[in-house]
Amino acid sequence: MKNLWNEQEALNFKSDLELRVYTSNLLGRSDALVLHGGGNTSVKTKVNDEEILYVKGSGWDLVSIKAEGFAPVKMQTLLEMAKLEYLSDSDMVKGQKEAMLDKSAPNPSVEAILHALIPYKYVDHTHADAVVTISNSKEGERLIRKLYPNFLIVPYVMPGFILARKIYEITRDFDWESCEGIILHHHGIFTFDDDPKASYEKMIEAVNQAEEFLETHAPLHIQNLHVKKEFDTKALQKKISKEKGFEVSLHVNTSPLAKFYASQPDLKQFATRGVLTPEHIIRTKRYPLILEDTTLEKAFFEYEQEYISYFQTFAKDEICLNPTPNFAIVKDFGVISFGKNEKEASIINDIVEHTMLAVLKADKLGGYVSINEAQSFEMEYWELEQAKLKK
Questions:
Q1: Which of the following CATH numbers is that of domain 7-217: 3.30.565.10, 3.30.70.2690, 3.40.225.10, 3.40.190.10?
Q2: Is-same-fold flag (7-217; 233-390)?
Q3: For a surface tag, which of 34, 84, 172, 195 has the fewest beta carbons within 10 Å of its beta carbon?
């Protein structure tokens, strides 16, 4: 993980918010840290003698975020929210919106309360591939504790208010000065400091630790398979379009990684073990369509029946989303992602590529383990995540 901080560039930014934008953009330049709207950052500052948290607005990408992409929220309101025993998603969004200095700013990140609880000026949060890969292994809890002895390690908790409340409870009598960061299992990593450069560099150093560990303990050698397999992508596109109710675009990935992944034995069991980090599920669903030793029609029927069964198992009063898959893995051929346009199909492909690498590496650490089905459903049908897709 390369440190992109540039002293000459940094001299162009004077205010707290300008520096926050700069280091957010640096984090966003690495796909191994954040992908397509992932991660969030914040800075605490004073406006007219009132303490304000400028936190990444929901839906913005760190790589391109500007000052107007940060939501200015009153710190006092956020800290009071953290003390509540319960807070619904809609009430959290409403309360945060009412506490904003600029009502025309974007909605604050769902992690705004958590950012407020961390008593440092700058807070950085990413879904670093290397950290989450280790966490998403069978020995993840032990390995993460060993690698990051001075970090606060938190078992997986649903993001948003539930996570913020958990951190509030854990840190009531907490020695923040001895804490180098926070790792959320199956989710991501936080670093923080009163200096923007220090907070950014703590993130890079922590992720480098994980990357070096994986290079040593989970080296990956992708075999370049020279198997030429024909596959009727037009028939798949026609079927997907019919099932989704609109014309889809395809992103066909037959790279060495995709072919190697698609050549694994017992492909259905291998490739349906869940998402790399929870927010990916709104793009990809929990698992792909597997096209191995069956007809297209049969594979679709089985996939949709399994999805409906998954929905019925966990649903309370939710309305079932379209049960059609969002990407497919074709045995010995590669990966095909579907989207309403080329951009969406490409985004899904990016997420799948990062997931494939993580699965292969985690398997070398004893096996890949994602959040479970119940947690996946909670995330997939979370109203705040669904709102991101509508945007």
A1: 3.40.225.10
A2: yes
A3: 172
Query: What are the domain boundaries of the chain?
Result: 7-217, 233-390
Q: What is the mean pLDDT of each run of 10 residues along the chain (391 residues)?
A: 96 96 98 93 96 94 96 97 92 94 92 97 98 98 97 95 96 96 98 98 98 97 80 96 96 96 95 96 96 93 97 92 96 96 97 98 97 96 70 54
Task: Classify domain 233-390 at the CATH topology level.
Answer: L-fuculose-1-phosphate Aldolase (3.40.225)
Q: What is the 8-class DSSP label of residue 177?
A: G
Look up residue 183 and give its amino acid: I
Q: Residue 196 corresponds to which amino acid?
A: P
Is residue 29 within 8 A of residue 61, CB to CB? The reply is: no
* Cα 229 to Cα 245: distance, rounded to the nearest angstrom: 29
| CB 116, CB 71: distance < 8 Å | no
Q: In what order do the strands lie in the sheet with 122-126?
A: 70-74, 50-56, 40-47, 122-126, 188-193, 181-184, 151-154
